[in-house]
Amino acid sequence: MFSSLGNIFSAVRKAQEMGGKMQEFNDQLRSQRITGTAGGGLVTVEANGLGEMLTLKIDPMLMERHDREMIEDLVPAAVNQAKEKAQQLHATAMKEMVSDMNMPGLEDAINRFSPGGTVDVPETDDQTAHEEGELEE
Q1: pLDDT at position 116, please?
Q2: Per-residue model confidence as pLDDT tens digits over 57-81
Q3: Phi and psi dihedrals of 39, rounded to 5?
């Protein structure tokens, strides 16, 4: 019975440590900056390590040409690139953080759900057709 209480207290202590580390982790990511670009730099997005968009810059040439369609294509591309970089930064930082903790299986769990992890997602017929170029846009 007392060993069970010891395990519970140990788990609570580790959870409290994890909460403190997560706050530091988020503060660190919030202070880091990443950039996503599209159109050879015509659109640039700056975001922090949490993936929060901070700035959006559009080349004045696009604005002068009133090329709305191109802007509409390039902005999401730049945002998505910045978001992907933020996710990679987040995953790397998370792996570093959990490697310091002695919790069996935690690092493997983080790896499975990180970008480039080994989680198998079944493809739908639409995804397969799109990848093979069979869907019309």
Answers
A1: 52
A2: 999 999 899 989 999 999 999 999 9
A3: 65, 35
Q: Under CATH, which architecture does the 33-101 domain have?
A: 2-Layer Sandwich (3.30)
Q: Are strands 43-48 and 53-58 parallel, antiparallel or unpaired?
A: antiparallel
Strands (E), the chain: 33-38, 43-48, 53-58
For strands 33-38 and 43-48, give the pairing.
Answer: antiparallel
Confidence of residue 42 (pLDDT cuts 50, 70, 90): very high
Q: Note whether 34 and 89 are within 8 A (CB).
A: yes
Q: Over range 104-129, report the average pLDDT.
A: 50
Q: Which two tokens stand for residue 87?
A: 């996710």
Selection from 32, 27, 43 nearest residue 86 by Cα: 32
Nearest to 69 by CA among 50, 42, 91, 46: 42
Q: How many CA atoms lie within 13 A of 28 on its CB side?
A: 13
Q: Where is 9: in which H helix or E strand? A: helix 2-31
Q: Report helix angle 68-100 to 2-31, nearest 10.
A: 140
Residue with tokens 């988020």: 26
